[in-house]
Amino acid sequence: MSAAALELTDVRKKFGQTEIIRGVNLSIPKGERHALIGPNGAGKSTTFNLISGRFAPSSGTVRLNGAEIGGLQPFVINRMGLSRSFQITNIFHRLSVFENLRCAVLWSLGYKYSFWHRLTGLRDVRERADDVLELIGMQHRRDTQAGLLTYAEQRALEIGITIAGGAEVILLDEPTAGMSRSESDHAVELIRKVTVGKTLVMVEHDMSVVFGLADRISVLVYGEVIATDTPQAIRNNRKVKEAYLGTTLDEATTEGAH
Predict the structure, then answer these.
(1) Structure confidence by residue, pLDDT tens digits, 75-122
(2) Which end of the chain is flanked by fewer CB atoms within 10 Å, N or C?
(3) DSSP letter at 121?
(4) What range does the domain containing 161 cover?
């Protein structure tokens, strides 16, 4: 197994006296596509927020490529090579598709708080944004205002924004939520394409998406990881089936559980 891209050791999170995350241990190797699943209220989004810096752990450690990141600001973690999307689409609605991607690549190419560069003259920024535009298959929407895109197109753009900065660890929070089956299938192919060679961690309720993408799956229940294994082993795990209140993962895979 390769070195861990992301490692959580006995991570706990309290809000007041209530412990939401209760000793999560998780190790995700570089290059793996890993899904985090579990019933509603299991703590999946809280775990994502602890990894990406929105919350600081109450105790335990979170490491990115061996470096401790628990409690760091989100922008610091992003600059260390981790990028995430959100359940709610997070784009600049009044900017064009291209302008959204251009904003996303600026820092990674060394253009920090620079007031003396004209954006239109930055050839490397333009080329990188166009590369991402082609990767997500939205060249035909290059100059379209992002707020006028369909919902599925906006989600695709957000995935583009997430990868545009060149992060090696990508967190996707329910990337297919609200999509039709055909839109979801297209999103899966897009995610598979844009995460080649990268480490992917996703929270997703649609089991057909999870089983179609993940190399391994971790199941979170009441703030604890009860199982981490291959999709087939998770499908046959009795504790996992019980956690889904009698709904077998075979049924969920067939029907899609949102």
Answers:
(1) 899 989 999 987 667 789 999 999 999 888 886 665 554 554 555 656
(2) N
(3) G
(4) 82-166
